[in-house]
Amino acid sequence: MEPLTIAVAIGGFIIPFLNTLFQKALTRILEKWPESDAAVGDLKGIGMTLLKIQATVSRIEAREVHHQGLMLWLKELKDAAYEADDLLDEVATVLRGTLQVSNSATTISLGSTLSNRMKLIRERLNSVANVLGDFKLGEQDQDDKLNHPSMIPKSQLTSSFINESRIIGRDEDKERIVQLLVSYNECADRTNAFVLPVVGTGGIGKTAIVQMVYNDERIKHYFNRRIWVCVSNVFDARRITKEIIEAAHPGKPCKESNWNMLQMNLQKRLQFKRFLLVLDDVWTEDQLQWEKLLAPFVDKREGSKIVVTTRSTSVAKLQGMMSPYILGGLSDDDSWALFAKRGLMGVASQSIKKLEARNKEIVGKLNGSPLAAKTLARLLNDRRQENNWKRILRTEIWQLQQNEGDIMPILKRTYNHLPSHLKPCFAFCSLFPKGHRYDKSDLVVMWMAQGFTHSAYGKGMEDTGNEYFDDLIFRGILNHERGKYVMPALMNDLARYISADECSRTESGGSWQSYGNIRHLSLACTDKDMQELINSGNLKGLRTLLLDLQDTPSDNTLAELIKNMPSLRVLDLRKNNITQLPNSIKKLKHLRYLNLSDNPIKELPDSVCELHNLQTLVLIGCKFLSELPGSIYKLSNLRNLKAHKSLTSKILKIGRLTCLQDLDEFKVRSNNTVEELKGMIELRGCLSIQNLENVKSGDEAKKAMLKTKSHLQTLVLEWSTGHTSIGSERYLGVLNNLEPHSDLGELKILRYGGEHSSEWMMSQKLLHLEVLHLCDCPRWELLPTLGELRSLRTLEVRGMGGVKKVDLNFYGKNAMEKFPSLRELHLSDMPKWED
Q1: What is the dihedral of CA 763, 764, 765, 770, to 10 degrees?
Q2: Are strands 640-642 and 665-667 parallel, antiparallel or unpaired?
Q3: Which of 128, 260, 387, 552 is most enclosed, with most CB atoms within 10 A?
Q4: Residue of 426, 432, 471, 425 lying closest to 449 (CA atoms)
Q5: Strand 484-486 to 437-438 pairing
Q6: SS3 sequence, 175-203?
């Protein structure tokens, strides 16, 4: 494998992580910490040192260098930063516990152990920061300033010249693109959509296919001017404009420096010519930059075109773009043909036959990438001995030693262009195998558990995580496939390549000695393997464990495993035939994600309730689990409880879980009143409140404060049958005080026993209601006014035994605009309806 550059080693986790640490030290903790407390000085000192280190690390992130001293310093920084994170996490937990008892606490008791650790961490971070001066980074910065900011690295320069005899399997793509360019589309031209994006992953052959098109005789005949500009990393509109001008008139250098003069010159040079402009290797997604560059082409000649090659679907969706041409991978036959053409030259016939026998294995490594085929072919040519190429074929392509122009360094540019907040999210995906079908919500809560997403600007952590996930889709790093999401194989290789010093995915029989620096581990192993792993002592710094056991684990082994992972944030034990969770689970004080799905577990130990930082608990498919621990309400940070509703509906004091996002069903009982819902303002999705006959009055219903549950999309209000003794006024009082927020999307009212509906069901109260079900309300004689619900698309009215007629009141006062959005209307089981 190519030695990791500082950019790769830093960017995956450490810069976003340092920012998280800084926020934790100076914002989330200090803002609630009593100013007079002695610990304030240490906390501020830690925060300021982190800020200093973060600024320096950010400066050196983009340098494509292999500096051994900096790499060793970086390892020390990571160790210190992770240790600081554990400490600050424990401090925050103590602070939260103190404030829950008293909001007016003037001192926080950390105890001597935490206080001493805080001082030691501060000293260690100061020591790490002081070492930075030995690297003379300031002198390096001065050298960097001498380079032109838009200078393109030699390895990334391209031109229009190509040897087509070396291209295989692209004839159909070439023909389609040529036709798109020479077939004049008057409608598209009128809308200024004259930029054709050719989109594909790194190494897929975008530049090569456009070079073929550029040199096609039909293109030469159709366009008066053909211009090729290599854009690369920095979208410098001034440089690009100058190069276009100079290419339009070869031999005449462009001397203008004034931006307006440059654009006037460009417009003059191309105004009456049908031109083809190729902008190769474009990364910018800035609409304003594009508009600046394209401004002189407003008066272009009809039929002129710009072709853009890019890896980003975001670029392809900018205003003014034609529908993108998505360049896929080569077929298996073409991949083999390209590999054979490049890799079997001069190879002995006997070796060729052996390689041909492994055709499928070789093609499987290439994933349709021409550059991967060339890389593997070059490596085999460099090492023609049979033992060497056997070793190469046994090795993952991301682990092979590669040159600057080979597949992994080229793919790494995709990673380099990711925003810093997406880098750890992408790197974390290396824990999952090729072809893995990602569940969006599950991956997002794992990111949350690692601190990759935060609440900001009124958005919750889940909302931020969902945006990050969507951004990875937008960039082509994840693809939607049958309700789940899949990462292209080469992107998976890239994730493993850039995260190799932090993440590991290991099959049974791996080397446990190599896990000393690993923070995130996906492991398939036997119970015996797990015992060896525990004995290796390499689990102390682990923050993620995704475990796939090949046999039933012993209770003792699982207990010992948990004791040896004090820093763990994510523990995924799904489908491991676990029958009992050890009490030692309480040792995982930093744990935020625990997945026990599809295990024959019969009960959870009470010690689970001591996981005060737990955000997500997944119990889907635990068929033998009949109830949750009685103190589950103590998990005050729990945001996601994925379990069958027969378990969640039994939780007493559930109102203390104020961070909970999902609660499918709430059953009103004498020991579980609707007041429990009062503080649960984070609830989202669907909430079904059942047994509402047990609500004694409107005042009691009001305590649920449903109007504050602004994230809810669906609300179900359900009474049980057989309660004829309850008066109509009590029913109405309860319904009146269960008014939801005005943005509710769907409402169901079932077996309501009142004679009248509530006023909040009118148009002004439910502005965005799209679906309404009114079922089995026997005392209603008239239907409520629903015609003015402007967003209503689906209406079901069923089982209204008392309704005799539907009068104009049903449509509302403005009869001209009744049900303006209605698409589905279902009326049934209304036996007394007369007209």
Answers
A1: 40
A2: unpaired
A3: 128
A4: 425
A5: antiparallel
A6: HHHHHHHHCCCHHHHHCCCCEEEEECCCC
Which tokens hold the place of 349? 């016939």
Structure tokens that stand for 345 in this block: 């030259």
Report which secondary-structure segment, H or E, holds 86. helix 68-101
- What stretches of 153-287 adopt beta strand conformation (E)? 195-199, 225-230, 275-282
* Tokens 């209304």, located at residue: 830
**pLDDT at residue 147, rounded to an integer:** 44
**Selection from 71-80, 243-252, 442-451, 554-563 with the highest mean pLDDT:** 442-451
Contact 254, 245 (CB under 8 A): yes
The DSSP letter of residue 237 is H
Pairing, β 325-326 against β 195-199: parallel
**By three-state DSSP, how is residue 296 classified?**
helix
Q: What is the structure's pLDDT at 407?
A: 83
Per-residue HEC secondary structure of 575-620 comes to CCCCCCCCHHHHHCCCCCEEECCCCCCCCCCHHHHHCCCCCEEECC
Spell 369-387 as b/e; 16+ CB within 10 A means b.
Answer: bbbbbbbbbbbbeeeeeee
Q: Cα dist. 277→156, 160, 233 in Å? A: 19, 11, 18
At 567, list the tokens. Answer: 């820093």
- Residue 59: the pLDDT is 63
In whole angstroms, give the CA distance from residue 338 to residue 374.
8
C-alpha closest to that of 28 among 108, 88, 100, 103: 88
Task: State the alpha helices, DSSP H only, in 703-809.
Answer: 728-736
Is residue 361 within 8 A of residue 393, CB to CB? The reply is yes
Cβ(11)–Cβ(499) below 8 Å: no
Three-state DSSP state, 220 = helix
- Give dist(CA 778, CA 750) in Å, integer: 10
Please say whether the dihedral angle defined by the alpha carbons of residues 562, 568, 571 and 576, taken in this order, is positive or negative: negative
Q: Output 594-603 pairs: Cβ under 8 A, ≥24 positions apart.
A: 594/618, 595/571, 596/622, 597/621, 597/622, 597/642, 598/574, 598/622, 599/573, 599/574, 599/575, 600/624, 601/625, 602/626, 603/627, 603/629
Mean pLDDT of all residues in 726-730: 88
For the sheet with 479-481, list strands across it.
437-438, 484-486, 479-481
Cα–Cα distance for residue pair 771/773, rounded to 1 Å: 7
**Cα–Cα distance for residue pair 773/792, rounded to 1 Å:** 11
Paired tokens of 536: 């290796």
pLDDT in tens, 351-388: 667 677 777 778 888 888 988 888 888 877 765 555 66
CA distance 714 to 766: 12
- Give the residue-averaged pLDDT of 729-743: 94
Helices and strands: H and E segment counts in the chain: 29, 22
CA gap 480, 487 in Å, rounded: 9
Share of the chain above pLDDT 70, in %: 84
Tokens 């969006």 found at: 440
Cα→Cα distances 138→7, 59, 72, 142, Å: 18, 10, 19, 7
Beta-carbon contacts of 209 under 8 Å, excluding residues fewer than 6 positions away, are: 170, 173, 174, 177, 198, 327
pTM beyond 0.85: the answer is: yes
